[in-house]
Amino acid sequence: MNVLIDDLPYAVTVAGVEVPIITDYRTGILFEQTLSDPVMPDHEKLNTVLVLYYGNNIFPLLSDMDTVKEALDGIMWFYRCGSEKEEEETGDNNASGKDPPFSYEHDAGYIYAAFLEAYRIDLTKNRLHWWQFRALFLGLPETVLFCKIMAYRTMEIPAKMPKEKKKFYQRMKRIYKLPDPPEKIRLEKELNAILEKGGDISQLMK
Q1: pLDDT at 103
Q2: Contact between 67 and 16 (Cβ < 8 Å)
Q3: Which residues contact 69 (CB under 8 A, 6 or more apart)?
Q4: Is pTM beyond 0.90 here?
Q5: Which DSSP string corresponds to 64-93?
Q6: Per-residue b or e along 187-200, where b marks 16 or more CB atoms closer than 10 Å to that residue's CB
Q7: Using an 8 Å Cβ cutoff, are 49 and 76 in contact?
Q8: CA 148 – CA 140 distance, rounded (Å)
Q9: Which tens digit of pLDDT belongs to each residue from 88-98?
C-alpha cells in the first residue's frame, strides 16, 4: 500500500469478517514492549497483543489456531505498514548483531522533542495513526537531537580519527548508550514461536 494515494486502514479481515483495528501509534509501541517482555508468559503475550489491537470483541471469532494465526497475521501486516515481508527491526527489537539505535521506552523524551521540533506535533495530544507515525518517524531530519543520538550510537570510530574527535564521540556513546536489551528478537518470529509452543486457544481467554 502507498500512504500517499491509498486510504489508511482501520480494519483487517479475520475469519471472513472485517474487524476494526486500533490504529493509534501507542498501540504499536505497546505491541513491541509486550513481545519483548522477558517475564510475561507466552499465552499472556498473545492475549495482550490481540486485545491491544482488536479489543475483546475478537475472541468469538477465534475458533481454532488457524483463525488465531489469521488475526496475528493481520496485526503483523498492520504493524509493518502494509509490507508483506518482515523487515529488519531498527528499534527495541533489532535482531542483528549490532546494538539497537533507539528504544521507544528509553528514548521517549527525545522522540517527543523531535516530533515537536520537526513537525510541531505534540505526541501527548495528537492521536496519530501508526502508519502516519512511522512515516514521520523515518523522516525525522538529521538536525534533531534524537537523530544525532542514533548516529552517535551507531557510528564506528576509526582508529586514525584525531584524538580530540575520538574522545568526543566515545563520550557521546557513553552518555547515550542504551541499557542492554534482555533479548534481541524479531517480532514475527517471536509470535510464530509462541504459537508453535502451545495450541490451546482457551489460554487466550484467561
Answers
A1: 92
A2: no
A3: 195
A4: no
A5: SHHHHHHHHHHHHHHHTTT-SSPPPP-STT
A6: bbebbeebbeeeee
A7: no
A8: 11
A9: 444 554 444 45
